[in-house]
Amino acid sequence: TDFVQDSYNLTTAIGTMLGGEGQLVTAFGGCGGQYQRDLQKGAEDAVADMPGLSIAVSECPSDFDPTKVQDIVQNALVAQPEVGGVLTSVVSQAVGAVNAIQAAGATGEVLVGSGILTSCSDIELVESGQVPLVAGVPSAYMGELGAAVALRALSGLEVDAEYIVPSNIYTADNIGDADLTQDLTAQFLEGC
Which regions of the chain are under pLDDT 50? Predict the structure, then answer.
C-alpha cells in the first residue's frame, strides 16, 4: 500500500469533516521509520491542498504506546485550543488521543483519525464514533502477499517489481458491513 496516499486520504477526510478548516495534531508512531515518514508526508501534502487546514503540533513518539499519544494530545489541547483533529498511526495509539480528548471535555469537538486496525476493540472505537475515521490497511492481505512473493522469489520464479494494495476509509457508517478479513487475521477477528 502507499502509506503517503493512505495518510493523504485520511487527512483529507478529517479535513472535510472539519469543514475544510482547523488545526491538526499528528502523532505518528515509530519516529524516523519509513512508515512514520510516509504518514507525515501524506498529512503535509493533504494540508497543502486544503488551505484552511494546518498542522499545529507534529510529534512522533518512538513507538506506538497510546500513553505517549495521550500526553502529546493533552499538551496540544492546552497549548493549541483550536485543535480540531488528531491523526495517529494505528488505532491502538488513538486510544490515547480519545482519552486526552475526553479528559479535556472535548469529545465531539476534536476528531480522531487513524490507520491500521489491530483488534476488535479498534472496531468498536470506530463504530462508536470515538475514532470516526480509519484508513484501513489490509495488513493480513499484505502479509500473505509478502510471503507468497518471497516464496516465488526463493524458488527462482519471476516476481513483479511492485504490487499495489488498495486501502479503505472506514467510518461508523461502513465498518459494520466491511469485510475486515484483509485487515485482520482470523485470530484478531475472533469475537468481533
Answer: none
| Whole-number pLDDT of residue 166 | 77
User: CB neighbours of 38 closer than 8 A, spacing ≥ 6?
Assistant: 2, 3, 4, 7
pLDDT of residue 107: 94
- In 3D, which of 178, 99, 97 has the Cα closest to residue 136? 178
What is the pLDDT, as a whole number, of residue 184?
Answer: 87
